[in-house]
Design brief:
heterodimer, A: alpha+beta, Arc Repressor Mutant, subunit A, 4-stranded antiparallel beta sheet, 5 helices, B: alpha+beta, Alpha-Beta Plaits, 2 domains, transcription (chain A), WH-like_DNA-bd_sf (chain A), AsnC-type_HTH_dom (chain A), sequence-specific DNA binding (chain A)
């Protein structure tokens, strides 16, 4: 792992702005934080090189796209050691409705975020795609009601 | 609703949000002017809200990530609101989600290391209001993170 870069207040301000809107140009960023366009651009480049800025994510209104239901699944695998984690991870990642897959320690082995059109569609994904995955022993579901993302410690 | 061309545009943009207008039009198989007009309309309708930079907290030295699953004392009328208000004051909380199910609230929390996590847990988390039960899931690895949907 590389060294943690030293961030100053200007870097933090840039990160906060880009976390809200990754499409901001270097000139707009510069205006907001009091830098020239080339200086803002150099700082963003540096944050990208340091791996702090790790790409972009599209912000879509899923409900308007017809995905009315988001469910978090806690998946427990059975007979550990016999099930290949790599096989499970490959298979679960290939399901289009599965948005995120996280390997966790605790009550479950994996935490999945699933986007579905409605509860009936979710049930189809759960029964046909998730429950049929290799090694799945137990699945716990929680339907997302609201979600708030915060800027984090910057 | 969306037609096929809209879906192609969003599909390509989901796969790579950094695409320029010209590249996007080419990959979606429509001409640049049409593509631009459709993007504008998707923004006006609020379907496409924009794009957000992904911050890699590990690169900033936050090596620990924990899901805190909270069951609330629901006899308190404002339990959800009070908990969310207090959680928002903790800089290391990245996500506040509410659920229908066994879990009422999930807090996504990051920490520099286990010692830092322990300190946050004792001083900031256990002191949050109206918690009836709390369990922690330690994140080991992110296997899939793109958060795309099948369009």
């Amino acid at each position: 792992m590389t060294d943690v870069p030293d961030l100053d207040d200007t870097d933090r301000a840039l990160l906060r702005l880009l976390a809200e809107d990754a499409g901001l140009s270097a000139s707009v960023l510069g205006q907001r934080v009091g830098l020239s366009q080339p200086a803002a651009w150099r700082r963003v480049q540096r944050l990208e090189r340091a791996g702090v800025l790790a790409g972009r994510r599209l912000d879509l209104d899923l409900a308007k796209l017809g995905f009315g239901v988001t469910v978090f699944l806690g998946v427990k695998l059975g007979t550990k050691g016999r099930v290949s984690l790599a096989d499970f991870e490959r298979a679960v990642s290939a399901i289009p409705e599965v948005q995120t897959v996280e390997h966790v320690l605790g009550l479950y082995d994996y935490r999945l975020r699933v986007a579905a059109r409605d509860i009936a569609d979710f049930e189809r994904v759960l029964r046909r795609r998730i429950m049929t995955l290799p090694g799945v022993a137990n699945v716990d579901a929680n339907v997302l009601l609201s979600e708030e993302r915060l800027p984090g410690p910057i | 609703m969306l037609d096929d061309a809209d879906r192609r545009i969003l599909r390509q943009l989901q796969a790579d949000p950094t695409l320029s207008g010209a590249e996007l039009a080419e990959r979606a198989g429509i001409n640049a002017a049409t593509c631009w007009r459709r993007l504008e309309r998707l923004r006006e309708r609020g379907v496409l809200r924009g794009s957000r930079a992904v911050i890699d907290w590990r690169a900033l030295g936050y090596t620990v990530e924990v899901s805190l699953r909270v069951t609330l004392d629901k006899t308190v009328p404002r339990a959800f609101e009070d908990l969310a208000d207090a959680a928002r004051q903790i800089p290391e909380v990245l996500e506040i989600q509410t659920f229908l199910g066994q879990v009422d609230v999930r807090l996504g929390l990051i920490a520099r290391d286990l010692a830092h996590y322990q300190q946050l847990y004792r001083e900031r988390i256990l002191t949050l209001p109206h918690i009836a039960d709390l369990e922690a899931l330690m994140h080991v690895a992110r296997i899939k993170t793109d958060e795309t949907v099948p369009l």
